[in-house]
Amino acid sequence: MQSRLHARLFLFVALILIAGLACSLTDIPPDIVDQIDVVVNEVVDEISSIYTATPPGGTGITDPVVTDPVVIDPGTGNVPQGGGALGPAPAGMVAIPAGNFQMGCATNSLFNCADPRFSDENPLHTVYLDGYYIDIYEVTNNQYAQCVAAGVCQEPDTRETMYGDTVYYDANYGDPQYGNYPVTNMSWRNATNYCTWAGKSLPTEAQWEKAARGSSDTRMYPWGNTPADCSLLNFTPGNSDSTCEPVHNPDGYQGTRVSAVGSHPLGASPYGVMDMAGNVAEYTLDWKDTRYYSMFGPNAWPANPINSGDGLYESSTYPKVIRGAGWNSPSADVRLTIRMGSGGTDGRSYSEALGIRCASSP
């Protein structure tokens, strides 16, 4: 726009000079002088229209709006699907911005990824995710009870003890004093039903890991690489039976050792997400496949990946991915890259160390 205007001004000045010169010469035919006057008037009209034009949404001359593209690390092969700025996070959730992060096992002074027992966590690879939201805390007994009252969710699975009593191994579901403890002992289907009822979904495996690790490094735990201890999470230190949390309301056979959600703020992830290591492990959307990380090159992963199974695993008995670790996990298993499998989508789950966290997209 500005270059066009400058050209017109230059031509205008030149024509004025020519017109002035023409008027000072008596031997130029009058019809030539009239033609010069017509051209001058046309230029004046065009310049005037440029100054007074009103573009959509504004007045006068405006510079074009330039939008910077989403920048992806070169060579990753990822194609952003969006990635605009997220709005304020819904209550109880935190925003995870769009961008790349490193997913998978990363060897450090505490852990060697070359151990064949951890092959399904390799290789380390670059993943791009659009922005999303994730729950700050694990879903509690009180929250889940609202879904049960609405007729959408089933109560947690029960078990008959050796004494003939029917009990819940989930921090005593239905007991008001444990309302702020994570709900456990439900199937993947009921976990999905809860998140759907709440207007959300279970997170994908990649969404879960980015929320736990952040995007700036390849830390081993949500809080960094400091060795795990009871000030950072609720787990079973070493290989002993001594847990960080005492037994709650033991019934003579077995009790629960979960903590109230958010009890270990020092162990929060870079985004402020609580209890992503220890307390209870959590369901995700993905089907479990130990070969999944080898399906793409480390720098050629698709954006927003999810292992949908491609029709191969859609069975109520095939496992879904479980991420995180529970209060009964030893120190070697509370790393944020650990991948476990459920007993299927509809199978009863008696794990008092497996719960729910939901996510949502804008």
Helicity range: 10-25%
Q: Which class best fits the helix and strand makeup?
A: alpha+beta
**Tally of domains:** 2
Q: Calculate the terminal CA-CA distance, rounded to whole Å.
A: 37 Å
In the CATH classification, which architecture of the largest domain applies?
Alpha-Beta Complex
Would you mind describing this structure in some detail?
This protein is an alpha+beta fold and about 350 residues long. It folds into two domains: about 1-50; about 70-360, paralog of FGE (formylglycine-generating enzyme), CATH 3.90.1580. About 20% of the residues lie in helices and about 10% in strands. It has five helices and eleven strands, in the order H-H-E-E-E-E-H-E-E-H-H-E-E-E-E-E. The strands form four sheets. The protein has a four-stranded mixed beta sheet. Helix 1 (about 1-25) runs antiparallel to helix 2. The radius of gyration is 32 Å and the shape is globular. Residues about 1-25 and about 45-85 have low confidence and may be disordered.
Attribute tags:
362 residues; alpha+beta; paralog of FGE (formylglycine-generating enzyme); 2 domains; 4-stranded mixed beta sheet; 3-stranded antiparallel beta sheet; 5 helices; 20% helix; disordered N terminus
Topology record:
Layout: H1 2-24, H2 30-52, E1 93-96, E2 99-103, E3 125-129, E4 132-135, H3 141-149, E5 159-160, E6 166-167, H4 188-197, H5 205-213, E7 281-287, E8 320-323, E9 339-341, E10 354-355, E11 359-360
Parallel strand pairs: 7-10
Antiparallel strand pairs: 1-4, 2-3, 4-11, 5-6, 7-8, 8-9
